[in-house]
Specification:
The chain contains four helices and five strands; from the N terminus they run βαβαβαβαβ. It is α/β, with parallel strands linked by helices and 110 residues long. The strands form two sheets. The protein has a three-stranded parallel β-sheet, covered by helices on one side. Strands 1-2 form a two-stranded parallel sheet.
Amino acid sequence: LQIPSSITAFDVSDEALKRVEELYPGVQVSNSIQDSVKDANLIVYAVKPQNVGKVHAEIRRAKEERGADGVRDDAIILSVAAGTPIASFVHGSLVDKVARSMPNTPAQSK
C-alpha cells in the first residue's frame, strides 16, 4: 500500500484532476506526464490504446532528457491498456520492466 502523498496522477482534463483531489485527499496531481513519473517506481498506463504512443513519447523524453532524474532505472510500467503488445512499451518508453493487467469489468462492484 502507498500513502496518498506518494501517488501522483496525471490527466489531460483539469476537471478530472480536480475530482482526484476531491475524492483522494493527499494524492498529488500533475499537468505533465514527465513531472508525474519523476521518481516513480510504478507507472500505471490507464489510457485508451490510441493514446499509448503519446504517453510512451513523454516517458521516453523524460528518460532521455533527465536520465534517472526523469524516470527511475528501477521503474515498472503496469498497463491496463488493451490491445497493446508489451514489446511496444519497452521500445516506446525505454522502460524495460513491464507488466499487464486486464480489468474484469463484469466483476466490478458499484
